[in-house]
Structure formats: C-alpha cells, structure tokens
Amino acid sequence: xxxxxxxxxxxxxxxxxxxxxxxxxxxxxxxxxxxxxxxxxxxxxxxxxxxxxxxxxxxxxxxxxxxxxxxxxxxxxxxxxxxxxxxxxxxxxxxxxxxxxxxxxxxxxxxxxxxxxxxxxxxxxxxxxxxxxxxxxxxxxxxxxxxxxxxxxxxxxxxxxxxxxxxxxxxxxxxxxxxxxxxxxxxxxxxxxxxxxxxxxxxxxxxxxxxxxxxxxxxxxxxxxxxxxxxxxxxxxxxxxxxxxxxxxxxxxxxxxxxxx
Length: 261
Description:
Blueprint: E1 5-14, E2 23-27, E3 32-36, H1 44-59, E4 67-72, H2 83-90, E5 94-100, E6 106-107, H3 117-130, E7 142-145, E8 148-151, H4 167-170, H5 190-200, H6 203-211, H7 215-218, H8 227-243, H9 246-259
Parallel strand pairs: 1-4
Antiparallel strand pairs: 1-2, 2-3, 3-5, 4-5, 6-7, 7-8
Helix pairs in contact: 1-6, 3-5, 6-8
C-alpha cells in the first residue's frame, strides 16, 4: 500500500461549495487535484480524517478518487485576488491532502440515481464505522463519474479526535447521527453488509493505513499527547470498532424502525 507525494505547481481556483474551502490545483505529475488545506477549519485533523477515510474506503473496494500527499509551496496561488483565500493558502504551506479531480462528474442525487440495497447498506456501514457525520440527504458527498458511484469528502469522520477521549470507549459509540444518512431508508440488508464488510478487511490492513499518516499531521504544539500516541489512538479506535461493529449496525436498524423506514 503506497501513497504518492507530489508538488503543487499551478493554482486554478477556489472551490466554494464545501465548508472547508478546498482549492483546485495541478501537481507536477500533470494531474489536477482537489486540495484539502491544513489551514482550514479543523486543520490537520481534517486532513487525517480525509486521508484515513479515503484510504479505508479504497481498501473496501469502493470507488474513491486517488489520494495523494501534496506539498504546497509558498508561491502557490500568489495571484489569487481574494484575501481570505490568500491567507488560507499561506497558512497551508507544507504537506496537504489531494484527491484526484473527477472532471465532468455529476453530483449524486438519490431521487435520480438508483442504488441497490446492499450497496446502500455497505456505504452506510462504512460511514458508521468511520463516524462520518457528513453524508446526509442534504449533502450526500457522492459523485457519478464514468457510470460509477464515487465517494468523496471524508473530512468529518473520526469526531472523537476533537476531544481525544478514550479511543476504546469512542469505538463503542453507536453513532446516532446515522439517522441523517442519505442511504438509511435504502439500506435493507444491514446484517448481510456487516458480515461482508467485516470479511473484507483486517486489523492489520487498518494498521498499515494508519501508519501511512504523515507524522507532521499528528504533531501538535503545547500538547501532552505525542504523535505516536495519536497514531496509536487511531489504530485502537479502528480495530476496536471493527470488532464491535454490531454496536453501530444495531443502532442503524433501530433508527430505521424508529423513523418507519
């Protein structure tokens, strides 16, 4: 399992659709990327969530844009006239995360784009596993590209890391936010999805993915928690959550019944 590191060489434009204000840029490999910036919103924690979420989704064989590490130089975007964006770029110098730009992709609309119940259940399972609060009916964060369904934007995952509470305890969170998930009404094969998803990945694979997180993203000034302790917290959370997936699967089933879905 490898992740490429490239340098951003051409700034294209800010992408104002999302709350974190990513930008579109071209790297030295000739490809365009949606760049999630360390200077925005929740900073490096959002980068970690995006990186881990994308890599784990890929390990589960979902369609996700290629995830790369992008070095943002000081001159990148120097021609951007918006002072707010300029400040954001200057605060994001260094290593950021990039997602391959899906040129011509259309936003997924559950009222228009059909999805089978097992696929819906698997995606719901993934988001409950990652505690991703941002794949809702109002904001599905999915695209249709080359006749396939693609998952994007995992930066709102792993909300336990905003308080750094006990990762083992956090892993047992039933995730009541699943009530807002875009696929809750369509996910009728949750127990089957749980079995298949648990078979599709191992704690060792999850550990390998966590080991790919750049150390500099795990470092925080004026903190008693070391970078390696943070890395261990993510690994512990994921392995324990996989082991106890019935906690969030049962919650999803409960929410479906509660909402009459």
